[in-house]
Amino acid sequence: MSDLQPDRPARPSKPMKPRLVLGAILGLAALSTAGFGLWIASLPPASVALAPPVPQAETDALLAALKPKRPRPLIAIVGINDATETTDYLLPHGILKRADVAEVVSIATGPGPVRLFPALTVQPDMTIADFDASYPEGADHVIVPAMSRDDDPVVTDWLRDQARKGAVIVGICAGAKVLAAAGLLKGKRAVTHWYYLDRLRKIDPTIAHAPDRRMVADGGVVTTTGITASMPMMLTLVEAIAGRPRAEAVARDLGIARWDARHASGAFALSRPFAVTVLANRLAFWNHEELGIALAPGMDEVSLALAADAWSRTYRSTVTAYAPSGTVETRNGIRLIPDRQGTDGPEARRVPIFPESPPAEALDRTLAAIAARYGAGTADAVAMQLEYPR
């Protein structure tokens, strides 16, 4: 006999009393909070580590690996149209263009704008199909930013094709995961953003992580650590193409004192202070705010990218780009598409990009401004996400 007894009418359920409902909610909240508390307590404290020196032979090998096949190389920066990392995509373009040592082309998987993450929208120069039609011999270097999808088949197929044609493939930050998905890191030494190291190993367990290196070359492929590693990486590429004096001149313009492969990997990890700050900022939803960046023709795209990226990672604010109308072209030809047209945005909540400062100094000033608005813990959390050695 069935225990359900369908022939017997079911008893109507009694509504729960408000106090019982509130008690149940509070009980679940307490259990959830207790779980978070135990997890946070299990995390290590913030750590301090020193970057060990890099042997000169390793630096020389990195520069040799980046040597182009053309006297004036062709460099392609590729992205997908939805959620390609802001700094990874814009900084290579801005730095290489100001260095004037190569032809630089920004491309995307499909037509239309590239919506960057966590802020800004750009119009690329061409699609992958257009690039292949214009440059059938391939690029000298391909820059691969972090993307919302690691295994986009258009990107991975194209990267394998470019590698076969002799291009050096450079994965910026979590762009290393895209290279791994394309099969380009099998059995090779590599680095990536600290947060995605375990994910990189899961994509390809044959990858050998190289700790305490900000950039690593192995077999025609170069990878870097987190987001701000795009600055030293591009200066190293400039040095490989045009020599040390040219790289030094560009570095002075950017406000960067050194750009070698030294890195203190131990200083970047999911720590207790980082988790507490992020969780507290996310829970304080009533204090979240929208900040604006006023786009202007000729603005410096490196400072813009760093400021927009940093302010968008506070877990307290989102960044919206404003312009009176239309597309805005930056100092080095990046075409920005504003989120809102017809206005410069709210003056009281406008994000400064410090145009009078070199871009690297503008990042330090941005972090100081974030600390002044949201506290030092938030500035530290942003620097940790950017993997920026302060």
TrEMBL record:
Gene3D superfamilies: 3.40.50.880. It holds the Pfam family DJ-1_PfpI. Residues 78-239 form the DJ-1/PfpI domain. It comes from the Bacteria. This is DJ-1/PfpI family protein.
